[in-house]
Every structure is written in structure tokens, then in C-alpha cells.
Write a structure and sequence with these properties.
152 residues, mainly beta, Hypothetical Protein Pfu-838710-001, 2 helices, 9 strands, 9% helix, globular, CYTH domain-containing protein, NeuTTM/CthTTM-like, CYTH_domain, CYTH-like_dom_sf
Length: 152
């Protein structure tokens, strides 16, 4: 129910995928300061997600699996640009890292996220991390859907 995560830029010269990634396409039905409603197709499954306002690196997250055909219909109703990416996972120092390689309007962007138990949990950074962007709204997917990376 609570999502606590840190987000980082990836040094593409030092990082290489260690497994086959999973294709993701997602869109936003609502991007309000207090809440975000996202629809996502991730591989062969689909999800509807509601995220609350972020406080520090923590926010409420409710996620529900939905039929893929309904998600496809919802994606057609979404705002602005869809987020297209391939997600890779990697275990580092006991934590699961998710590395997103963006396509489409956000092509060229590489972001890594790690979910934590609490905001003060120690995170051993892999050598391929460049800088933390957890508090920079420009790297939130909901913002990227309206302000694509290729326009920066």
C-alpha cells in the first residue's frame, strides 16, 4: 500500500542488462498533484494504479490487475504521450533494482528505481548509478508523459 522508492539516472557506459527485459506501455488517465491514475500493460498482464501525493520518497500506491483488452481501451483515453519502456531487473546487495530503458518520445532516458522498507534504509549504489533524481519531478513517469525527454 505504501511505495517507498529511490530513483537514479543510469550510466549507460557502465550498465548492461543481465536478463531479458519486459516491455511496458502505460498512460495516465489523471495527473493531479494529489493523485495520479495510471493504466499499464506489462508483458501479458495489465494493471490500473492509483498513486497518492508524494511525501519525501513515500506515497500511497493501490494497484489492481485488469483485463488486457480493457487496458488497451483505457490507453486510448489517456492524456498526452504514452510511456514506452523496457524494464530490466537486477539484484544488487540484497535489493531488487528495476532499470527502465525508455523508447518512443522518451528515448535515450535510462532510469533505475529501488523500493525500500523505509526512507532511511541504506542503499549500496551499483557502479552504474550516476545521480539520484528521487525528488526531481521531471523524472516522474506522469510528468514524462506530458513533457517527453526528447523535448528537453
Amino acid at each position: 500500500m505504501l511505495e517507498i522508492e529511490r530513483k537514479y539516472l543510469v550510466d549507460v557506459e557502465k550498465w548492461q542488462p543481465t536478463n531479458e527485459g519486459l516491455k511496458i506501455i502505460q498512460g495516465y488517465l489523471s495527473v493531479d498533484k494529489e493523485r495520479v491514475v495510471r493504466v499499464r500493460i506489462k508483458g501479458e498482464k495489465a494493471f490500473l494504479t492509483i498513486k497518492g501525493n508524494q511525501q519525501g520518497i513515500t506515497r500511497t500506491e493501490l494497484e489492481y490487475e485488469i483485463p488486457v483488452n480493457e487496458a488497451q481501451t483505457m490507453l486510448e483515453m489517456c492524456l498526452d504521450y504514452p510511456i514506452e519502456k523496457t524494464r530490466y531487473t537486477q539484484q544488487v546487495a540484497g535489493l531488487l533494482w528495476e532499470i527502465d530503458v525508455f523508447d518512443g518520445a522518451n528515448s535515450g532516458l535510462y532510469l533505475a528505481e529501488v523500493e525500500l522498507e523505509n526512507e532511511t534504509q541504506y542503499v549500496e549504489l551499483p557502479e552504474w548509478i550516476k545521480e539520484e533524481v528521487s525528488h526531481n519531478h521531471r523524472y516522474f513517469n506522469s510528468w514524462l508523459s506530458q513533457n517527453p525527454f526528447i523535448r528537453w
